[in-house]
């Protein structure tokens, strides 16, 4: 038997036996279980298993952090339990039975945006690199950019926008595809639907606003008795979500009621055409107003005379949002803000949280430097945290021992205030760890690197200090 066979048998018993397991699967580092009764799981004993680096419950799933060898453990658990694992999608569906209405809404939103995140991160990195070579005067005594001096890098700058434009300008296409896939309608028709929102035939939103302000010509479809403005929804998030939902509802309704012999013709036509018509007359304009409104609410808070306080509170509370899943609701608002107000105010704070969580683990390893288990769990956790993946740090260590979590919260709150005081704004969502500076607007990159360094220092310092208090369970045991 493989090396995890004994631990797999013990875990099965500690989870309440096979009769308490509804389904299970695994991701890159975690086993994910849907349990009939989560109270039957002996969490403390599970976390004492040699292969376990931590556990937490989120999205109706009991998740156990194993590490990079999780696929090997998964195979051993299948053999030990006699239960076949299922896909992540099936586990998520079954886990929703453990969620309330708000949690289900957030879970569905997360599933729509989860496949999009890699593209958004790539786009953010591209924008950041273009900032460095094309917008910061680094050469000839600070008078010229790299692209102004070197034709090769000017070519790179222009070429990379091919990818950046595909990700950000045509973002509605990605979103409508993801919505349709999530709602089990036709994702290919979802792509077509998305293209109708960003077609080159349409005026961009900025051109439309300028035409209205200057009295210029506005392109329209002329139906004789009425006209429809030919205005696009490039980079818009909320309109794309609403239109994707509308199309999917129409598609599924028709699929259910139209006879199968004519279904292939009737269903696509009578779901796509009305959806596109409503997109450009009702749903799209309404979605734009909602999206712009949400983005401007964020802007008001972060642009007010108390913006540094708002940013600090956001940084302090963001880790709690992650625990509850509320942070998923921020991504569409952030993406909308990038288009509406020209930047993202919240992402600099989000990235500082990731850095703080990783740095708190560094302090934890220092405190427990004589503990081999702490090093084994902690070192991979803070390395992945600095690279933007914080689950092993946050759930595997910081929440478990509490004082590192509080230390990270305090550091994020303080540096969130400082970040806003110096005016840091991000171009886009990016990698939420040390590479995050690439996502900031060009003029804020260097100051933000300084804020990141301060965040590391403060997080380690706060965690070291809090380890001496009653927040550290070891101190409570001594007393």
Automatic annotation (TrEMBL):
Stored InterPro entries: ATPase_P-typ_TM_dom_sf, Glu_permease_IIB, PTrfase_EIIB_Cys, PTS_EIIC, PTS_EIIC_1, PTS_IIB_1, PTS_IIBC_treh, PTS_Sugar-Specific_Components
SUPFAM superfamilies linked to this entry: Calcium ATPase, transmembrane domain M, Glucose permease domain IIB
Domain PTS EIIB type-1: 5-87
Active site: 27
Membrane topology, as annotated: Multi-pass membrane protein
Entry-linked Gene3D superfamilies: Glucose permease domain IIB
Keyword set, alphabetical order: Cell membrane, Kinase, Membrane, Phosphotransferase system, Sugar transport, Transferase, Transmembrane, Transmembrane helix, Transport
One Pfam family it belongs to: PTS_EIIC
Transmembrane parts of this sequence: 105-129, 159-180, 187-203, 237-254, 266-286, 306-326, 401-425, 445-467
Domain PTS EIIC type-1: from-to ranges: 107-478
Cellular localization per UniProt: Cell membrane
PANTHER family according to UniProt: PHOSPHOTRANSFERASE SYSTEM TRANSPORT PROTEIN (PTHR30175), PTS SYSTEM TREHALOSE-SPECIFIC EIIBC COMPONENT (PTHR30175:SF4)
Protein name (database record): PTS system trehalose-specific IIC component
Organism the protein comes from: Blautia caecimuris
């Amino acid at each position: 038997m493989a090396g995890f066979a004994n631990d797999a048998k013990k875990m099965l018993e500690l989870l309440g036996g096979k009769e308490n397991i509804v389904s299970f699967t695994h991701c890159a580092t975690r086993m994910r279980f849907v349990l009939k009764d989560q109270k039957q799981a002996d969490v403390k004993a599970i976390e004492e298993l040699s292969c376990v680096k931590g556990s937490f419950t989120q999205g109706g799933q009991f998740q156990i952090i194993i590490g990079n060898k999780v696929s090997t453990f998964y195979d051993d658990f299948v053999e030990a339990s006699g239960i076949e694992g299922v896909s992540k999608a099936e586990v998520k569906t079954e886990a929703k039975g453990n969620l309330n209405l708000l949690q289900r809404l957030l879970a569905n939103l997360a599933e729509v945006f989860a496949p999009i995140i890699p593209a958004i991160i790539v786009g953010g990195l591209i924008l950041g690199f273009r900032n460095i070579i094309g917008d910061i005067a680094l050469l000839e005594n600070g008078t010229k950019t790299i692209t102004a001096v070197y034709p090769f890098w000017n070519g790179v700058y222009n070429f990379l926008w091919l990818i950046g434009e595909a990700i950000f300008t045509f973002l509605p296409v990605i979103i409508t595809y993801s919505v349709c896939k999530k709602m089990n309608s036709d994702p290919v028709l979802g792509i077509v639907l998305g293209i109708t929102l960003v077609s080159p035939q349409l005026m961009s939103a900025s051109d439309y606003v300028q035409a209205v302000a200057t009295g210029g010509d506005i392109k329209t479809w002329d139906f004789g008795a009425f006209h429809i403005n030919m205005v696009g929804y490039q980079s818009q998030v909320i309109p794309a979500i609403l239109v994707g939902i509308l199309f999917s509802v129409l598609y599924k309704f028709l699929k259910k009621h139209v006879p199968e012999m004519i279904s292939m013709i009737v269903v696509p036509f009578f779901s796509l055409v009305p959806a596109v018509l409503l997109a450009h007359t009702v749903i799209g304009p309404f979605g734009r107003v909602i999206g712009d409104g949400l983005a401007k609410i964020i802007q008001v808070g972060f642009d007010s005379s108390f913006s540094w306080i708002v940013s600090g509170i956001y940084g302090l509370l963001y880790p709690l949002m992650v625990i509850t899943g509320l942070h998923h609701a921020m991504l569409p608002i952030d993406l909308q803000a990038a288009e509406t107000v020209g930047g993202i105010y919240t992402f600099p704070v989000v990235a500082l949280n990731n850095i703080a969580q990783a740095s708190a683990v560094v302090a934890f390893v220092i405190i427990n430097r004589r503990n081999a288990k702490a090093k084994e769990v902690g070192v991979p956790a803070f390395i992945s945290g600095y690279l933007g993946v914080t689950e092993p740090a946050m759930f595997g260590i910081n929440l478990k021992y509490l004082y590192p979590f509080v230390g990270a919260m305090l550091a994020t709150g303080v540096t969130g205030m400082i970040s806003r005081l110096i005016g840091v704004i991000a171009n886009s969502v990016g990698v939420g760890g040390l590479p995050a500076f690439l996502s900031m607007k060009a003029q804020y990159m260097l100051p933000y690197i300084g804020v990141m360094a301060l965040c590391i220092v403060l997080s380690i310092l706060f965690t070291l200090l809090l380890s001496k208090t009653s927040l550290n369970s070891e101190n409570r045991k001594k007393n």
